[in-house]
Amino acid sequence: MQISGSCHCGNLAFELSWPAGVAVAPRACACAFCQKHGAEWTAHPQASIRVRVEDGRLVLKYRFGTNTADFHVCARCGVVVLCTSEIDGSVYAVVNTRAFEDRSILSAPVAVDFDGEEEDARLGRRARNWIGNVAIEAV
């Protein structure tokens, strides 16, 4: 299944290829950043994502906590579209389902809380569960 989305102004747009027959389940993270942005994330290790960046100067990357993930935020409209983490030389990603063009395909969000998770466990979880086929392209 192909899923399209973008930030509000379109500076960050994506095409997400999702495995057939797999439910698209958003996760509502309990951290303060995700709560303040209203972000709900999804990923699947068999998915792939292609992100198109119209103006890279207008993409902010924000890190906090363990400093092992970059939240990609559009500086023009303020929408956080995806989060990436580089692990052992590979880039993994989760995508904000709030940026989907069609949210009718989503199941009900599940609350998650990763507070207290050790860094090695966190990186292992990301490598197993996040999107491993990530392409970010400047226009």
Structural commentary:
The protein contains 2 helices and 11 strands, in the order βββαβββββββαβ. It has 139 residues and is mainly β. It has one domain: Beta Complex (Metal Binding Protein, Guanine Nucleotide Exchange Factor, Chain A), CATH 2.170.150.70. The strands form 3 sheets. It has a 5-stranded antiparallel sheet. The longest helix has 11 residues. The two termini are 24 Å apart. The model has no long low-confidence stretch (mean pLDDT 96).
Low-confidence stretches: none
Count of DSSP H/I helices: 2
Mean pLDDT metric: 96
**CATH topology group:** Metal Binding Protein, Guanine Nucleotide Exchange Factor, Chain A
Strand content: 35-45%
| Helix residue percentage | 10-25%
Total domains: 1
The helix-and-strand class reads: mainly beta
- Rg, rounded, reads 14 Å
CATH class: Mainly Beta
The coarse overall form would be globular
Beta-strand segment tally: 11
Ends apart, CA distance between termini:
24 Å
Report on the biggest sheet: 5 strands, antiparallel
CATH architecture: Beta Complex
Note the run of SSEs as H and E: EEEHEEEEEEEHE
Strand order of the largest sheet: 4-9-8-7-6
